[in-house]
Design brief:
The complex is a heterotrimer.
Chain A (H helix, E strand, L loop, with lengths): L8 H15 L1 H4 L31 H37 L1 H16 L2 H12 L3 H11 L2 H15 L2 H8 L4 H12 L1 H25 L10 H11 L5 H28 L5
Chain B lengths: L10 E12 L2 E12 L3 E5 L6 H9 L7 E8 L2 E2 L5 H10 L1 E4 L13 H8 L1 H4 L3 H14 L16 H15 L3 E5 L7 H18 L2 E6 L2 H4 L4 E6 L2 E7 H6 L4 H10 L1
Parallel strand pairs in B: 3-8, 3-9, 6-7, 7-8
Antiparallel strand pairs in B: 1-2, 1-4, 4-5, 9-10
Helix pairs in contact in B: 5-6, 6-7
Chain C lengths: L1 H29 L4 H6 L8 H10 L6 H13 L13 H36 L4 H15 L2 H15 L17 H35 L2 H8 L4 H37 L5 H10 L3 H29 L1 H4 L5
Helix pairs in contact in C: 1-4, 1-12, 5-6, 5-8, 5-10, 5-12, 6-8, 7-8, 7-10, 8-10, 10-11, 10-12, 11-12
Amino acid sequence: MRTQRKYPLFWIVLLALIFTTTIFSSLLAPFEPNAMDMNQIYKAPNATHLLGTDQLGRDVLSRLLVGGKVTLFIAIISVVLSSIIGIIYGGISGYFGGAIDAVMMRILEAFLTIPSLVIVLALQAIMQGSVWRMAMIMGVTGWFVTARIVRSEFIRLKELEFVQMAKMFRTPLWKILFGHLLRNCIPAIFVVTIFNFAGAIFTEVSLSFLGIGVPPATPSWGTMLYTAQNDLLVGAWWMGLFPGLFIFVTILCVQVIGGTFKQGGRSHI
Amino acid sequence: MEVLSNKGGDHIFKIENVAVHLNGKYLIHDVSFTVPKGQITAVIGESGSGKSTTLSALLGMLPAQAVMEGSILFNERNLMELSEQERAGLRKKHFFTIFQDATNSFSPTLKIKQQLYRLTASRLGQKEEAFLGKITAILKDLNLPEDVLNRYPFELSGGMLQRCMLACAFYNEPDVLMADEPTSALDMLHQQEFIKLLKNLHARLGATIILITHDLGVAAIADSMIVMKNGEIVEAGQVAEIFKEPKHPYTKRLVANHF
Amino acid sequence: MIAKWLGKRVIMGTIVLIIVSFLSFFMMHAAPGNPATAYYGGNAQTLTTGEKERIEQAFGLDKPVLFQYGTWLGEALQGNLGYSAKEGRPVSTILLERLPNTLQLIVLTLFLVTITSIWLGLQAGMKEGSLLDRGLSIFSIASSAIPPFWLGILFIMVFSITLGWLPSSGMNDVRGDGGLVDRLYHMVLPLTVLVISHVGIFARFLQDSVKVENHSYYVQVARANGVSEREIRSMILRNAVIPYINYVGVTIPSFFGGSIVVETLFSWSGLGQLLVKSVMVKDFPVLMGAILIIGVVVVICLFIIDVLMICLNPRLRRGGFV
């Protein structure tokens, strides 16, 4: 009994909606996200400020929309970077095999043993700073799983007849690597990239929440929860609830979509 | 040998007009036959002929989505009217079944001792000490070294594991022993040996045996046989008669190929 | 066979620790400025050249980098991890104060997560299509999308601020005697957050492997022969738990990652909180030490998992193919 899996249309539309509103956040935001209004400090959600205001009287909804831009930007840049590194590392390891593969895999396993948040933290300590730097740091530390998947796909594919044929006809190495092998493991890379994207959002908000991500003055979903720790004491529950809800729904969309593709394809994570 | 004289109207199974369909497709239909008590009945046919479905129906273990029509009487009780528990009870008290793939018939992480215990003494509510004495004697009869009990399935060959299953049959002395292609995963030498042991078991216990196979050589040890094709019975009768004078063209071809 | 396999694992663990030590050592050297600036923070500019040289000598900074690494590693192996740049106390002392607190949290989390997830996963996996089966699948996806710190914030909002039932920070009551009951009382919220954010995926993993086992050949054989459901269930669990324990091993590092965030939120003075603090104030000696000790603990945990795997999987014990 194989049940037909539904296309996760609902989640794709929801995610697309989140993306569009964040991209056009400056147009959509009802208020200027950094505009302070001392008469409107800590106002609970109401008709004017749909999600309330913060300790400086800034509109929470507007800050959330703009904040999403920072979070998603970092996640996208870091995932692109980590995919590139992962493909190159895993590709070399899988295609050449032998001693190269053995050494590269031992190193990879070692990296997988260290909690990734610890590595990111360490790098943040040295070069804390801009949004770009943070995306770089997360990219450099987020490629391990991609590399493992690409490696196993390459090992599987390189034994197949069409690759052996290409080798026999002395097709240039780069053509074999990119034209034949890489093209055929795109579905697997796609799935792992989706999950990496969810992971990157997770890492960014975690770091910003800890106060060592993007500078606390920059509105991002993580930094808003960072400041929310103080807001809770004065009873501003909306400061803690809404940013987290945005993060939760976004990650949920990404995970559900990734999960569907994972079951549909033949990837093995 | 007095059990063999027990021919005539004494049936242990009476299967009448049984049909099984799954998702609107018939797996077997119009299946009617009787299984005489104390005899070996062979069900022969190629894969997809419905012989395994027939066995599942007898065991009451059809897939949940399958629908069954007709009736199966075991000792005059209609299996269709029994609850899931009662059917499990029948499988525990009256039947024993040996399957084709002996290497996968055992859990990979338990020693043979515990697995044989679960397949025998535990079903009958006996203690482990009593079990050990009896099973050791049976294993010896079956030419199995005693230390198989302390081995894991992956340390034994398919032939040895199939003999372990047979040991369970000897232990349980079931009213009906069912065997689903018990020899097709074994090599020639082990096939011969297994058949010999099966005959031996039949002579000693007088159990009714339902032997499902695609191999006429194996079916030759049976008293009567049923030939299935495409979910239907195409021929049934005494083995000796069918071998001598097959009627249906399919059986004719089978017999011709065999000799 | 086992000796060879374990030997491989020990070598692997050593490689991991070497990489971790490299990482933490060179991190300090890649840092802007040097330990002197780190030590004096913003006041570094006011130092005279003589003072700078004196500090650099004290830190061994005039020697080649690899030489410094060797010295540092040799000292570290003897338990000497240097002195905190902020507190001036030995790093090893600070770490040893913190380590038990983190271990309490993580060991209890692991214990609760494995017990609960095995029980839930087995129940759900054995009853395919049931409410529990489908409910657990949904819970597992949802719980893996909840950031643990947000869950913690929600819990603090509800249980500490609104209801006033549970403490939101610290490990002991200031006026209390610091006893076990008090400690556990303070542990409820951080523990619950860590357990909820991990239990879903673990239960889901076991649930899936129970389903695979439940459809396997040997289970069909056992059912056909009237083996009791209780005995079948125990066979299934015995086999399903092997990939599960392996999965726990793979996920152990993420427990430490999760505890960093949770310790910081609940002011639990463990290694995670120490790590975050030392990043903020750029206390590099402490940071290096904390990373190193987390690496050591993870490697030890993985080794325990490996031993457990040998106990559970007869194929590893009895040769055969690994």
